[in-house]
Amino acid sequence: MASIVETEGSTAASSSGLIRALDWKGAFWVAAGVPPLVLFSIGGIAGTTGKLAFVVWIISMIMGFLQSFTYAEIAGMFGNKSGGASIYGATAWLRYSKFIAPLSVWCNWFAWSPVLSLGCAIAAGYILNALFPIPGAESPAVMEWINANMASLTADSPRVAEWLAAHAGKTSQDAISALLSTDGIAALTPAVRSWSLVSFDIPFLANANLNATFFIGAFLMLVIFAIQHRGIQGTASVQKWLAIIVLVPLLIIGLYPIFSGQIDSANITNLVPPTAGYSGVDGLWSNGGWTLFLGGLYIAAWSTYGFETAVCYTRELKNPKTDTFKAIFYSGLLCCLFFFLIPFAFQGVLGHAGMLAPGIVDGTGVAEALAGLVHGGRIVTQLLVILMIMALFLAIMTAMAGSSRTLYQGSKDGWLPKYLDHVNEHGAPTRAMWTDFAFNLILLAIASDVAGYFFVLAVSNVGYIVFNFLNLNAGWIHRMDSSHIQRPWKAPTWLIGLNTVLAFVNALFLGAGAKVWGYSNALWVGFIFAALILPVFAYRHYVRDGGKFPAGAMEDLGLVGQDLGIKKAGILPYVALAGGLAVVLAANWYFQLPV
């Protein structure tokens, strides 16, 4: 009988697009790409918050886990929609403003989608390091080059004088040794590492570079696209094995330093912010120190909250009433384990100075650091390089699967452009996937260097915090306006209230933290990018659809036609919006970077 039901469900689903092919375990495995996101910004957060870094990850993960219960409740109300929490929460705002709903969906998408470009940039860095390594200063090749070119610098050379002027207290021999070492590394670095087809400025944003990282990253994105072209069931199968291969060794490596006694208590005590970002020097709990701490919580949210993607696949679950909650709950527990453990183990062994190594900050040296945690040699390091590339694939596949379904459902509900409302014969939203790919080619060109990498991260996270603010408030709005709708799982009322408070805490992170990541205008660029959806929605809704939403857009709420229901929450949603904006602006004004 069960097989008959599943077949009928799959057939019915396929006739309208997405196919019901998953159980909660499948959705769990697709969301299993979230834990590796810790590797995207573990170095950046350590540089920004110093010894507080592991505490930042723990606080952020606890917040993400608590918030997920609001998302689990509202997701259960929409058994016929895909696209994740932003879709389910956006419907709560429709009664109060048609423009808030597409804003929430758009902000969620442009926050999640850059995982493709950022992950591929790091993976490309690993591949370049493996095939075309930059020699170390102490490597035999560099030492041989120095010996052969020793006569090229003398004590009276202008370069030596310039170096000494910048390094007080050093000798001429120190200068010659340092300069020759730098010259040797540059001479022996493979040309592909500095090659670029073209480099250009994107006005008011950043510099773009079509280099080796860009082309390797683009190829990796195409590989992931090909895997997901087969549909969600095939994607979940690949994700399952990738997750097992990646997460089990990562868990063992995280636990080993704790049980082997490698954690240095000096690295995890005297918890104060640094004097400045990447200074490596302990500071004070001043205004500047608090700003750095809040900046860490701001960027950590992009990773720790991400397991909410487990509810992106409600429309593809065989039994959404029970599987939706299980998927997000167990995904949250998995993320708690890794986001607590990995930053603690890294910091406990490496210390603040070790976490500031360039390879940790840009992500390409994480494999070597992991090998160091278990005292692994060259072979172990190479195996971990492969493991890290697979971990990045895991995260990227999760992001493409979730973000493309957000675009698809947003189009189906009349919020985003009509052309995105399309799936192939396997039930994969291919036009949305191609849109993801094209958008991320632009971001990949920007993220090909460290500065551009954190610019993309900081700006995209503006959208993510806006989405979380709107969705956490959607929990209580749905309670007031749609109390009659069955909820397969209902969160305790006190938790809905607590998560509403956390919405404003997130607004505090946004106002104070967006400026921390090297771009003082990141908040405003993020707001501008968020606003781009407004004319797009206006064209779709008022020109293309004649001011009407597609049939069935609100059927999960028991509404038919263009009836959006009664505004039982009254003025409260508008008060929440005004309050959130006030918190962001006040925090942005009050909290300032240390000088």
UniProtKB/TrEMBL annotation:
The chain crosses the membrane at residues 26-46, 52-72, 105-128, 210-229, 241-259, 288-307, 327-346, 379-402, 437-456, 491-510, 522-539, 571-591. It comes from the Bacteria. InterPro entries: AA/rel_permease1, APC_superfamily. Its main location: membrane. Keywords: Cell membrane, Membrane, Transmembrane, Transmembrane helix. Pfam families: AA_permease_2. Gene3D superfamilies: Amino acid/polyamine transporter I. It is found in: Cell membrane. GO terms for molecular function: transmembrane transporter activity. It is a multi-pass membrane protein. GO terms for cellular component: plasma membrane. This is Amino acid permease. The lineage of its organism: Bacteria, Pseudomonadati, Pseudomonadota, Alphaproteobacteria, Hyphomicrobiales.
